[in-house]
Input
Amino acid sequence: MRVAAIGVGQAGGRIAELFSYHSLYGKMARNTCPAALAINTSEADLNMLKTIPKEDQLLIGVSQARGHGVGLVREMAATIARDSLPTIMREIARKDLHYIDAFWLVAGLGGGTGSGSIPVIARRLKETYQQPVYAIGVLPTRDEGTVMAQNAAAALAELHSTVDGTLVFDNDVWRTEGQRLEHAYDHMNHELVRPFPMLLTAGEASPNMVGIKVVDASDVIATWKDVAVIGYWGIHVDALEHGGPFLQGLPFFKKRGVERIRATLACSTVIRNAATKMSGEWNPGEAGYALMILAGRREHISMDGYSEARSWLQSTMPNAEIRAGDYPLRGARELSAVLLVGGIHSIPRLGVNLEEKR
Ligand code: GDP
Output
């Protein structure tokens, strides 16, 4: 799956930049994000970006914000974005859009520029192009105050009526106790982006490494609906392959038996663990859709473990349509799982309760 990542505001630009970085230099997600753009009302924030080149950075609202941003005033950002739509759309159109399967609009929903602008840009993208439009929104922490919480709630409601789905990353869940939030951003952004290379590449397996059940862009599109969350877990190959003292004394045939049981257990554990580490708070009973992907060396992917995990997901999310796939990867350093859950419509912490949009 290939996407155009459009990062708006400070958080949006930084996160879009990471998608671009993986696409340019990553081992797994090469060429998955052929188009990346950063848009901001703050010149200083744009100057901080390293991977998205100057020609793909767009400073908007210079006459109103004078390059200094809009603070937390998302209405001002919405007006600026509306006035700047011709320029924004021209910049987007410069990209090779016929290569992409979806647009990703990324922003911190509690702030001003990204929060106010992405619903405006999303609406115009939906009117203009056929590809689905998704939002990836960072939620503010409880400590960041009521204005940020209100901004996030307003942005989620506007996005809900416009985009195909909004994936949330809750800073409150991911911050480290005792560490200043600004110091934690790098680590948090890394964690946010971590599941995406596999999500984007799973359907692009080379012909000689096709999984038993292949996931493709249509599975992602069918799952990422309403509000969505994503999780990732990996078990290093060393932990899978070193039998330890327990296995060393066993005869060969018993060793094989134990290894098979261990592979089954590893596959079901890695998915259960991913479910414990989702990008935001969620209620499994509410989930409408789920997609699980199990990836790793072919010899580490146990179809018994895969089936067991799938049944567990179904019992945990009784109302969800479950999709699943495996992704064999030669020489992988981890057995890993990605879990995407969609069809969520409430975020109690922010008092958000969206209409179900099935
Ligand atoms: P904007 O520049 O006006 O769009 O506002 P920001 O992008 O700074 O949005 C503010 C919200 O985003 C707050 O909740 C911040 O904690 C959060 N935020 C800002 N930068 C980052 C970042 O790099 N990573 C993460 N995870 N959150 C960020």
Summary: The CA atoms of residues 103 and 133 lie 5 Å apart.
